[in-house]
From TrEMBL:
UniProt record similarity statement: Belongs to the CDP-alcohol phosphatidyltransferase class-I family.
Protein name as annotated: CDP-alcohol phosphatidyltransferase family protein
Entry EC number(s): 2.7.8.-
Single GO MF annotation: transferase activity
InterPro entries referenced in this protein's UniProt entry, alphabetically: CDP-OH_P_trans, CDP-OH_PTrfase_TM_dom, CDP_ALCOHOL_P_TRANSF_CS
Keyword Ribonucleoprotein recorded: no
Keywords: Transferase
Domain of life: Bacteria
UniProt lineage: Bacteria, Bacillati, Actinomycetota, Actinomycetes, Streptosporangiales
Length: 315
């Protein structure tokens, strides 16, 4: 079977992705995926290893701290990320993804960031003697891990919110009828995974998939009410397949390991990217807090609707 570029786009591209991936990676990765899938028997795991080795090569270049090698390191890091995107695409295209492959991809990503951060900042420290680079190295590793741990926890909290709503509705219905939720609350929450860098679809069990496909209570109502302009921005980004979390772990990595070395501005670019990452993380926490308020209101409305249904039976 020959795969076309349209096959690659329709079967492997995420509905929404990081803007760096959408504009600077997918145009190349998609074509490479089509060629690789049609002309070779290379497996996704082999590509994962290739991406990891390129990442180590990038770290070796960063360690020298010389300008030409910094440029080479930046190019290698980008190519490493292109391969990193290819492995998942080929796995989805051919249906050859494995649990081991997903684990390798995640672990190698974290090791790549760790090794490249140490190499880049240690090389700059050796060249300049400035302790600031050591602090930046620690900060880069910390923020990368914080971002991924935070993403996993946010997804966990959101799923728990939905389970809480479903349980409340089921309990209410079984106790005395089937109370109707207000229609304004019955539509899908398209921002469920907006905070994630990870492709988590392969990790969802059947119950989680069912929860995501049911009509669900809107847990972003208060946020949208307070920031009405957000809807227009979100729709424009969605039309271009870009998620609203504009500075995530991917953009942070690319700023530190590509933009900074290319421009010769490692310190200001790293500090600026870190600040923007924290701003977007704070925005996510704020949205989650507002969602908790929406959850409380929804639970009270379910309880109130249940009481109205049960009242005639009590009389």
């Amino acid at each position: 079977m020959k795969f076309t570029l349209d096959d690659v786009r329709s079967q492997t591209y995420k509905a929404r992705d990081a803007w760096w991936t959408v504009f600077l990676v997918d145009p190349l990765a998609g074509r490479l995926v089509a060629g690789t899938a049609n002309r070779t028997s290379i497996t996704p795991n082999q590509i994962t290893w290739g991406a990891f080795l390129l990442g180590l090569g990038s770290a070796g270049c960063f360690l020298t701290a010389d300008r030409p090698w910094l440029l080479a390191g930046a190019v290698l890091y980008h190519l490493s990320f292109v391969l990193d995107c290819m492995d998942g695409k080929i796995a989805r295209l051919k249906g050859t993804g494995t649990v081991l492959g997903g684990w390798l991809d995640y672990v190698f990503d974290r090791i790549r960031v760790l090794v490249c951060a140490i190499a880049l900042m240690w090389g700059q420290y050796q060249a300049t003697g400035e302790d600031l680079y050591l602090l930046l190295g620690i900060g880069v590793v910390f923020l990368d891990m914080l971002r991924y741990v935070d993403a996993l926890q946010i997804a966990k909290v959101r799923r728990q919110m939905r389970r809480t709503l479903k349980k409340a509705y089921d309990d209410s219905a079984s106790a005395g009828g089937s109370p109707a939720l207000p229609q304004r609350l019955l539509h899908d929450d398209s921002d469920l995974d907006a905070a994630l860098d990870l492709d988590r679809d392969s990790d969802l069990d059947a119950d989680e998939i069912r929860l995501r496909t049911l009509d669900v209570v809107d847990l972003q109502e208060e946020f949208r009410t307070r920031f009405s302009w957000y809807i227009g921005v979100r729709e424009w980004l969605r039309d271009h397949r870009v998620r609203t979390h504009l500075i995530s772990g991917i953009e942070f990595q690319m700023a530190v390991f590509i933009i900074g070395p290319l421009l010769g501005l490692i310190v200001p670019v790293t500090v600026g990217a870190a600040a923007l990452l924290l701003v977007f993380e704070a925005a996510i926490m704020y949205k989650l807090w507002l969602s908790s308020r929406d959850l409380g209101r929804a639970l009270r409305e379910i309880k109130s609707a249940s009481a109205q249904v049960q009242a005639p039976a009590g009389n």
